[in-house]
Protein 1
Amino acid sequence: MSSEQHLGGDLITLNLGFNGLWINIALFTEIGGDRNPLHYDEAAANASRFGEIVVQGGITSVILNAVVAEELPGPGTVFLNVNWPLKAPVRCRDTNTGRVEVIAARTDKPIIELRTTVTRDDGTVVLGGTAVCYTMDIATGTER
């Protein structure tokens, strides 16, 4: 799609469950080096204000990477800027929904602005913000 096709309002959602996926926390820890005990030490996490293990913020936001790269705008899209404040914790048992909506599209360049949210299955918004993306057709290498 060209940025002109994204005049605003295009919307897509994707669900991602963490239930039983402790391996994701371990992999993210290994890749990123985030060894905060809140993410893998039950005793430390239970004694915290969260009362249990919480997943890393990078795992929380990864669902938005999937939506943007695979669906809207789709393959060939890269992030230029993200503003993703974390608003609430995500636990391993949560199922999250990532939501991406086009809120603006430039007409001079293939750049779009997205409203982005991640919501837990209990309705709590855990991440909300915006992203600016550059889009290109990876088959031809041309701007969309």
Protein 2
Amino acid sequence: MLTTKRQGRWALVTLIALAAGVAAFFISRLVLAPEKPALPQIQPAVIPEYRPDVTLADRAGNPRALSEWDGKPQVINFWATWCAPCRREIPMLNALARDPDYPEFAVIGIAIDFREDVLRYLTETPIDYTVLIGEQDGLDAARAFGMESLGLPFTAFTDKTGRIATIHVGELHRPQAEVILAAVRAVDAGQITMKTARERIRAETPKID
């Protein structure tokens, strides 16, 4: 049983790592030789216009659907316990979830990992926002967001109607989050269109290594 469990864990980790490696390989080829794109080219992620309504178990084992937070703009963070940049994001996401300047935003974590590993991690590292947990169903949730070939972490931002403003791939930092949250808030206030918000996010989100 222990061997089977370890094999299953490594299978899940290997699947995600392989997907990340494929993406990194093609991206590096494009960066190193932009004048002659390598073939075959990796297909860009197809991000849906609206947030998919996935259902996963929470830390208590209860099924929770993302539609539970309909009417609220959402920050949906995909992570895993074995992912170092995912772990580094947690204090910032905790602060964001508690921040009185952003009371309307629902922060939701989706752990693509083994349930027992996530529950053990949560006993050691407090997370102040809702955490949903999935193994294969977690991978399926990532695919529903259009993220089939990219690694963790990634974070989807939606407006209050569920439209996806952006998906930030890689570790999210507070200055980046604030640019995106401001754009989403402006959409919800009717000050700008979603098209303008997406353009603003692309232009103004700082690049942080």
Protein 3
Amino acid sequence: MTRSSGLHAFSTLGIVFTASVASFAPARAQEASTLQFGNLERTVTIAHDKFTALADAMPEGTFPWRPMEGVRSVSDVYIHVSADNFFVPTLMGLEAPRETGITNDVLTFRAHQEREMSKAEIVDAVDASFRFLLSAMESTRGELNRTVTLGGSDTTVGDLWIRAITHIHEHLGQSIAYARTNGVVPPWSG
């Protein structure tokens, strides 16, 4: 085979491959969208497991600890995450559980964070908030491109989920740092 016939065969193979891939593109695009949302749900499930395990592993005496004045305490972070997990779906038109007192009014979100709670109540609230969040995610699975208004600007349901998940992970990192500073090794890291 000469160099030019080899290049011709290679380019022909490339055209056949491209045509083959293009014929599957619409089906693959749909699978990719479903897979991506499933990945978001799995990411929230992992964060749920880690947050509840870490909150449970923290001694109750560490819950008032904060790294410095003016910064959230251990308990404040957990309560904030649970409040946000209940609040974000209300921005998409879903109702948070009545007992939380949270609606789509940011003042209810803030009021929820002011509650005094024991360690057991906080761990339960974190767990319940993640279960609610996952249920809300599932209920909006087919609405990711639906427009919602956030702070006077239009965005989509899918964008809100990405923001929420990013926010969850910011506070997971914060909670891990708080735990390690207080001598607690995150249970999943051995």
Protein 4
Amino acid sequence: MFGRTAEADPTAQPAGGAAPSAGGAYRLQLATSRSEAEAQALWKKVSHSQGLDGVSPQIERVDIGNFGTFYSLRIGPFPDKAESLKVCNALKRSGIDCSLAEQ
């Protein structure tokens, strides 16, 4: 089938804004890119434009057999579902698609 390996980007630093609690169980799935560099570039764009203090990126390598390797960008954690959906709606208004991904 396919395998996943988590690779967080230790160099990405969130920008200022609302601070979710460290114990939140919700993350947002932002993109699945063909390269890790594309996923990192999206994180930089989002973190600078949305002010996501306390939110960290998680870039996960996903191998999908004959389809190849993809890089999934998730951000969080968020303290609750309502906060994660609030951020997701703000991202959608700025043209960035996202979906809720519980940890």
